[in-house]
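The protein record passed on for reference:
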Amino acid sequence: METFTTLKRRTTERLQSLPQSLQKMPSVSMPSVNMPSMPSMPSMPTMPSMPAMPSLGRGKGKPSSDALKGTWERISLPPLPRSSHTVDVVAGTAYIFGGDGRVRQPVDNDVYAVSLPQGFAGADCYAIKPKPAPQSVEHAPQEEGVATTPSSGKNKGLTEIPLGDAPNVPIIREPSPAGRAPPPPEEEEESSEEEESSRGRAKSLVDRHPWPPARSGHSLCAVTTGGGREYLLLMLGEGGDKQYWDDIWAFQVPSLGMSMASVTDAVLTVFRRKTGEGRWYRVETTAYDEDDPSAAEGPGPRGYIATSVDHDENAVVIWGGVGPGGKKQGDGWILRLGERARG
């Protein structure tokens, strides 16, 4: 039998020769297997984008801005100074008639047609002069033997009575059994309570939101902006003691039905948010034409202007008026709501 030392030596030799024998073994390469490619999945159709909902904050928030944006455009034409006149816009043309040059002295009876500026085309104006109709007297043929009377042509059943000679015909009414009955006390109390509550509501509105000062000789026009939103535009006017205003205010009225504005208001109402209906907004103006930056100030303080809504442009045309010192104004302007400017 081999000794333990001999077995140990042989085992060590076998272990040392094992790496060399492994290197001499032939390498076996595995065959490449091409897996069939999976068919590409069809692309999903693009879903239409949902309309943007108004952002709703927490608690009682106020609008992001207490002012609306507007633009002034100057109508570059020779002046037609006048006040207490009228203007109407039809198919892009403003028609001006009448007015005072001095106090209670009409200027003329011409019709001035002002072609409003559109795109790169400027404004133009021409006068339509009145032409008197030719005077001609035509006599109807008369039958022989028939004399004309002053009452010919009138109904023979009617008699002419001078106004002062007409008999007084009493009008008999059934008398009330109790005479003039005063309104019931309940109605008086309810009306007085309604007056007090309405005064309180008006006072709270004045305290919480800006309000236009009192004035006369101003203009109030209804305009519609994008999305069905409607406003009443309060423009210019006289504040008393020959002080004239140059500010523009917008009063928000209910929006048009079935419009984006009405949907937005309905969502705000559901979340107990205010829609802005029934409040005033100050209109901040800039120049509509970038080449005329001075137009941002608008027509300046004046009253007794003539205005008309241009429905094609959703704009208001202003002409003439009375300025400080009682001077008659003869320029024209176009007011638009929004920030769109022409370069």
User: Anything to note?
Assistant: Residues 185-208 form the longest helix (24 residues). DSSP finds three helices and 14 strands in the chain. The CA atoms of residues 109 and 122 lie 26 Å apart.
